[in-house]
Automatic annotation (TrEMBL):
This is YCII-related domain-containing protein. Gene3D superfamilies: Dimeric alpha+beta barrel. It comes from Cytospora paraplurivora. InterPro entries: Dimeric_a/b-barrel, Sec-metab_biosynth-assoc, YCII. It comes from the Eukaryota. Transmembrane segments: none annotated.
Length: 88
């Protein structure tokens, strides 16, 4: 199975538990089209419900993107947030 398919399978499982609320790529610029090959990736973002930084790490450490080096847990920026509003 391709790493990206394993990645999305894993994310969907975590989403179903309620831990992952939103996620996606951070892009350097607005893409000209929907072709992944034309997008300039700057990173990733996740909105996660967890009790601690370590709990977030525990949720993502088994992802294929971590295991294959796409995501570097040592450089991950994990921030607590107090959301003022949301639009489902």
């Amino acid at each position: 199975m391709k790493p990206s398919l394993q990645h999305f399978e894993n994310l969907l499982k975590k989403k179903e538990t309620g831990a992952f609320k939103m996620g996606g790529a951070v892009l350097e610029d607005i893409p000209a089209d929907e072709e992944v090959s034309s997008m300039k990736f700057a990173g990733s973002t996740l909105v996660v419900v967890a009790e601690s930084r370590q709990a977030v790490i525990d949720l993502i450490k088994d992802d294929i993107y971590v295991k294959s080096g796409v995501w570097d847990l040592e450089k991950a920026q994990i921030w607590a947030a107090k959301i003022a509003f949301r639009d489902p």
